[in-house]
Amino acid sequence: MSVLLTLALCAQLHLAKDPTAPVAAAQPAPMTLVAAPYTLPPLPYPFEALEPAVDRETMAVHHGKHHAAFVNNLNQLSAESPELRQGGIEALLPKISKFPPAVRNNLGGHYNHAMFWQVMAPVGKGGKASAALVKAIDQQFGSYAQFQTQFSDAGAKRFGSGWAWLIVLPDGKLAITSTPNQDNPLMDVAEMRGIPVLALDVWEHAYYLKYRNLRGDYIKAWWEVVNWNEVNRRYDAALKAKR
Ligand SMILES: [Fe+2]
To answer: CATH assignment of 131-242, given 3.55.40.20, 3.30.530.20, 3.20.20.60, 3.40.47.10?
Structure first.
């Protein structure tokens, strides 16, 4: 599992001197999530790059305040927990049940958001689902349209705050699931475990400034900014890790 997770959990994190400052880059880099000191990864595009689907102010607060808080909290927690300073997130998430809730929430929040920024891209810059991924989607869900509906429903019907996920199961098949709060499918507490290849944040902080209570409208617009190039990369890495 460790090799599989190591490949799947790739992230390249950099310390942002000003967490509210956007950092423009054409494409997100492969990731390697490391343990303490935890750092806030820069957005791979400017705050306004995802408009009109996701507005500038939401991105600025979401990245510069919410994600930054997870990172700051983790560094405070790691001062009291040597295990949080060793091994990287890929070694910690599968045994998250052994940690207190604060670690679960903040470690999940950090991982989830680092991934979320990467699986989005400006309209027209995200490419398309690869032939291999389209084939797997068709096999598992019947059609792309049915996949999209099921994934959207997973986000829309998640009670309270949480996430919708497309994951690769241990048998290599795709599945859609959702998690509450900042949990994710890599955690040993998840109802359905697998390697995430697409993530959707349905916390109110992800959409409330623009969409208010209309989560469904946010999800509908969000499909316009999915970075399929990154989803394809994650899907391929998950399958290779299984060989
Ligand atoms: Fe969020």
So the answer is: 3.55.40.20
